[in-house]
Amino acid sequence: xxxxxxxxxxxxxxxxxxxxxxxxxxxxxxxxxxxxxxxxxxxxxxxxxxxxxxxxxxxxxxxxxxxxxxxxxxxxxxxxxxxxxxxxxxxxxxxxxxxxxxxxxxxxxxxxxxxxxxxxxxxxxxxxxxxxxxxxxxxxxxxxxxxxxxxxxxxxxxxxxxxxxxxxxxxxxxxxxxxxxxxxxxxxxxxxxxxxxxxxxxxxxxxxxxxxxxxxxxxxxxxxxxxxxxxx
Length: 232
Ligand SMILES: [Zn+2]
Prior knowledge:
Helices cover 71% and strands 2% of the residues.
């Protein structure tokens, strides 16, 4: 298992490069590009949330709980009475905290379903949905945000898998094959629910075509080339 620092760096470097390209290509504003970078790094830490007391778990839980409270307060700030916004913030704080505890207890086995490809897809599509519905991002930007999270997640799984190959001895450690997988044979029902969840979220998400079209378009490539040409 690769350690925490390797995971953060391993996700941060490609995320920074990709975010830079996305901004240069005019796909996202610098702000959204920065958020994408953050999501990529988050994705690199996310898979280890199933290890109860790991560093990423504590950081992530703290961030998620505070983020949920802030989001609840902001959402109600304009239309509701201040005390209601405050109460909602506290409620969100408690709900997310308790919910996350229960969630990790349910996942329980480290290297269980969380370290799987469908879980990587699930968290990404969830971001697409939140980005488009709650933050009203255009489909291209919303999908890009989701791809960053899933990308960071995949980097984590790949690093875990790499670290279970003993390069010097040229043999596989026992943990090989436990990180990059399509599901869990011991948790068939949960695996099925996971796939159903991915399909449901994709169905609710904005179409991905504009994202694919924009990312592969000549205009984007030309914008990136132009941005690089500005450097001597
Ligand atoms: Zn891991």
